[in-house]
Amino acid sequence: MDETPQDDDCELTKLHPNYKTMTRVEGLVVVVPLLIAALVVEAFADFPPGITAIPLILLFVWLVIYLPMRRYQTRGFEMSADRLRVVKGVLFHSDTVVPFSRVQHLDVEQGPLERVFGIARLILHTAGSHNASVTLPGLWHGDAVTMREDIRQYVKRESQ
Question: Phi and psi at residue 75, in whole multiples of 5°?
Fold first, then answer.
């Protein structure tokens, strides 16, 4: 019997811990204005106490504490010599393998929050229509650039 490990058996590389912090900040950006609005409504409306604030506090706990932790725990990647495997999913699990021979071009992108936390997204654009772009968020910016260059070198070697 062949004892070579399957893709599912390989240890995944975790995303940078700053990814978890950044997603918590994103959750705060969504929930805090809603929570302030709920408190204002409760102050001036004739509602029973907590009718608007309590659901938003629960949303706060879910968006700022639970969901970022679960996203971080369920995401990972494995880069081999000729492919990148990206695993993600809290509710819907996705395990995508991108052979470097299918890569058309590569991007490293950073939004404002990602810049603050020093992380970036590596985006692989592939030939075909199904999953034509695969995004790997939460990489340290330097690691994303290094991975992009490694993949670019592979594509360049194979096309010669």
Answer: -105, 145
Residue 12 to residue 1: CA distance in whole angstroms: 24
Q: Distance between CA 160 and CA 16 in Å, rounded?
A: 34
Write the burial class of residue 16 (CB in 10 Å: 0-12 exposed, 13-18 middle, 19+ buried): buried
Give residue-wise pLDDT tens across range 115-157.
Answer: 999 999 999 999 877 768 999 999 999 999 999 999 999 998 9
Q: Report the alpha-carbon distance of residue 111 to residue 8 in Å, rounded.
A: 31
Q: Which residues contact 101 (CB under 8 A, 6 or more apart)?
A: 82, 155, 158
φ and ψ at residue 23, rounded to 5 degrees: -70, -30
The structure tokens listed for 147 are 């991975």
